[in-house]
Write a structure and sequence with these properties.
By secondary structure, the chain is mainly β. It has one helix spanning 117-120; strands spanning 18-20, 30-37, 47-49, 54-60, 63-67, 70-74, 79-82, 88-91, 98-105, 122-124. The strands form three sheets. Strands 1-2-9-4-7 form a five-stranded antiparallel beta sheet, with no helix packed on it. It has a three-stranded antiparallel beta sheet with strand order 6-5-8, with no helix packed on it. A hairpin with a 2-residue loop joins strand 5 and strand 6. The termini are far apart.
Length: 135
Amino acid sequence: MATGYLKMVLPFNQVKEKEFLSRPMGCKGVGFSFVRYKPGEGATYVHRHKVQEEVFITLKGTGSIILDGKRISMPEGTIVRVAPRVYRALGNDSNKDVIYMILGANSADKFSLGGRTLLGDGIPNRKKVPRWKKQ
């Protein structure tokens, strides 16, 4: 077997609420996860980052994302890039489960938290923008 890569298979029907995959895949500079939201569920809080941009991809179903207080529909196949200072939260306004892939990249020299930088860089502001809830 060749070296320098790792292959993993995670069928969508096996995706739990949150599947953080960077560490199991041995990633050093990229963070990524799968997130499943049941109907009416969403992110626990709206947040933004200091330097971390993120990309959100709807893999299955139709969800929504809140960006600086504006709700945007995300049907299957939608890709949204969000700049660091934009408040964001994912959710599911539909009647079926939705699965997202979330991607982010960090410069290793700017962060000391390793794989947790996706969370450690977050700046929640619950007063300015409330947590995600179904419309």
